[in-house]
Every structure is written in C-alpha cells, then in structure tokens.
Amino acid sequence: MDGLCVCRAPVTRAHILGTGSYVPERVLTNDDLAKLVDTSDAWIAERTGIRARHVAAPGELTSDMAVKASVHALELAQTRPEDLDAVIVGTVTPDMPMPATAAFLAHKLGAKKAFAFDLSAACAGSVFGLSIAQQYIQSGAAKRILVVGVELLSRVVDWTDRSTCVLFGDAAGALVVGPSPDPARGILSTHLHTDGAQANILAIRGGGSKHPQSAEVLAQKLHLVSMNGKEVFRFAVRALTDAVKEAMGANGLVPGQVDHVVAHQANLRILEAVLDRLDIPMAKAWTNIDRYGNTSSASMPMTLDELNRAGKLQQGQNLVLMAIGGGMSWGSGVIRW
Ligand code: ACO
User: Is residue 324 lining ligand 1, measured as CB closer than 6 Å?
Assistant: First the structure.
C-alpha cells in the first residue's frame, strides 16, 4: 500500500520529551454494562480483553480531559505552556464542531503563542499528530509541540447497542515533542495511510453536511457510532501488520530488535493477531485495554505514558508504534528511546 513515509535522515531529530494521560474517575465494569444491555463479563472479556472502562462526569468536556493529560506531559517535559509553538489534538469527539478543541485546550493551558488545530483520523489521531509534529521539529519550524489524543466516546455511543457500547472508554493522552538532545535517539520514522473506500465500516454518519443535525438524524441514531465489527477486525489486522513491517523495514529492524510495541488498543485479539503475524511476542506489548477499553486516539499516548512512568523504557530501546481507526486511517512508527 502506498502512503506517506517520513523516514529521511533528519537534520534535527524529533523526540518525545514528555508524556501524560488522564482517565475520568467513574469506572464502568462489564458487570455494570450487563445491567444496561444483554451482555456478560465473560463475553466481553473473551472477545475483546476489556474488563472496565472510564466514563466522563456530566459536564466534563473533551478539552477538560485534554488539559489534565497535557499538564502531566508538560511537567515531565519541563515545558511551559507559553513556550509551545503548536497544539495538535486528534479527536472525533470535540467540544463542538467549531472552533477546534485544540483552541480551547491552548487557551485553558495558557499556550498563547501556539497555533492550534484538530485532526480527524479517529483512533489513529495521535500517530497522525505525532507525524505532523515530527515534521515541524525536524524542519526547525517549531521547537515544542503538544500532541494530544482525546476522546469522550461515551457521549457518541449507542448505549442500547451491545455490539459497540461495550468497547469504548473516555480518556486523554498527551505527548510533548521537541528536538532530540541526541541525534541517534528520537522518532526514526512514521508511516501514514488512509483508505476512504472503507469509510462505511466505522463511522458517525450524522451531524455533518451529508446528514445535518435534525430530528430524523437523532431518531435514526445517525449521530452515534456505527460499526461493522468483523470488517474492522479483518481490515485492522492486515493493515497494522503491513504498517509495522513497513516501519521495521524502513529502519532495518528485525522482530528481535523490537523492545516495546506501543499500540492503539482496539481489541486484545487484534493486537494478538498482528503480533503473531509479525513474530513479535505479546510480552513486548504493554496492554491496558482491560482497564480502559478502546480509548481511540488517547490509547497510544496513554500506553506510552504508562510505560514511561513505570520506568520500563531505557535509552536506546526500539519502540514500534501502531494505530488504526475510522477512515480507515492507520499509521506506524519507530522511536529509539
Ligand atoms: N455481548 C453479548 N453478545 C454480543 C455482544 C455483546 N456485547 N455483541 C455482539 N454479541 C452477539 C451478536 O449479536 C452475535 O449474536 P448472534 O450470533 O445471535 O447473531 C454474536 O454475539 C456474535 O457477534 P459478532 O459480531 O459475530 O461477534 P464477533 O466475534 O465479531 O465480536 C466484536 C464482535 C468484539 C465487535 C469484534 O467484531 C471486534 O472486536 N471487532 C473489531 C472492532 C473494534 O475493535 N472496533 C473498535 C473501534 S475500531 C478501532 O479502534 C480500530
């Protein structure tokens, strides 16, 4: 598959200088869900690996969650909000259609000089955002960029549809990207792809120009997530396997040289199937889908933050990133930590 490969030897290499994450306080377990729809802990855990997810409080906004994750990442990066050149937010659940959630986030943080925008690549939003940040840092056009993946999916899932409502959770993950202090370390490459022919298998159909908000759109639940789970599963396994091969190939890596897999966690079985095809043991992948469910664009940066804060990342280790979401859009990358 042809796509964008950002793998030239850069003049300045970009690196991740800080990571942060946030989940709302309220936990919804599989047993709680079994009281809402006809499902069970056993079914959900076996098919997806999910045991619980967090749900935002009434009145809590996407930008509020993004602020909390960002503050943690900025602290770790020893970066002041006013020193940020750009704020990029990957989300499909913005505070409102306009303006961008990134504008609210930058304002709430006090990132006065940053330009700010949202990008729509669903669960791949953070990988897309990271790749854009990498370009700005490598070119020297920016010194500090905040990349956030944040989703408040509990407000756009159909809580009567057991095939989707069991999957998602609310969360935010943040990364501060800047020049690497050591040119041998940092983001070695990123690889992005989109196949709009697959747009129908995972979508929120209502609320845009095709189906403007109306009583009919609401009645038909077009404003909520719809998904062909089997197709998403099939497509994700193939696309992610190819994307990780592409990333490893671009950097001359063989599976044995991968120290950590930092994956968007859509479903534990998707991850297992991809790593099996790549000959990378599951032990290399930090998993948290059991606690958070599928948190879409927040998933990859949250996973990296957990690894980072658990002290699992050592200088010189090779991290492989991967994520896929509605579009379908997907991406991969390699970071030398
Ligand atoms: N509890 C109990 N039964 C259920 C549930 C549930 N929560 N959901 C569906 N079922 C039933 C179905 O109704 C069906 O019943 P039937 O045989 O009587 O018709 C049966 O279980 C099997 O349904 P399938 O859809 O065939 O189940 P499948 O094994 O495909 O699992 C799942 C469904 C978990 C959604 C799977 O397809 C999947 O994980 N797909 C990937 C989707 C994904 O990860 N999406 C995340 C967003 S996309 C992203 O992040 C990339």
Answer: yes
Taking CA atoms only, the protein residue closest to ligand 1 atom 35 is 229
**Which residues have C-beta within 8 Å of that of residue 3, sequence separation ≥ 6?**
191, 192, 193, 194, 246
Residue 285 DSSP code = B
Q: Tokens representing 166?
A: 């069991």
Ligand 1 contact via 167 beta carbon (within 6 Å): yes
Atom of ligand 1 nearest to the CA of 39: 1
Stretch (H or E) spanning 193? strand 186-194
Q: Determine if ligand 1 sits within 6 Å of the CB of residue 48.
A: yes
Pairing mode of beta strands 86-90, 145-151: parallel
Q: Is 325 in the pocket of ligand 1 (CB under 6 A)?
A: yes
Q: Is 123 a catalytic residue?
A: yes
Judged by DSSP in three states, 150 sits in strand
Ligand 1 centroid to residue 55 C-alpha, Å: 21
Atom of ligand 1 minimally distant from the CA of 123: 50
pTM of the model: 0.95
The tens-digit pLDDT sequence of the chain (337 residues) is 556 666 555 679 999 999 999 999 999 999 999 999 999 999 999 999 999 999 999 999 999 999 999 999 999 999 999 999 999 999 999 999 999 999 999 999 999 999 999 999 999 999 999 999 999 999 999 999 999 999 999 999 999 999 999 999 999 999 999 999 999 999 999 999 999 999 999 999 999 999 999 999 999 999 999 999 999 999 999 999 999 999 999 999 999 999 999 999 999 999 999 999 999 999 999 999 999 999 999 999 999 999 999 999 999 999 999 999 999 999 999 999 9
- Counting Cβ atoms within 10 Å, is residue 309 exposed (0-12), middle (13-18) or buried (19+)? middle
Q: Whose CA is nearest to atom 12 of ligand 1?
A: 163
Q: Is the CB of 164 under 6 A from ligand 1?
A: no
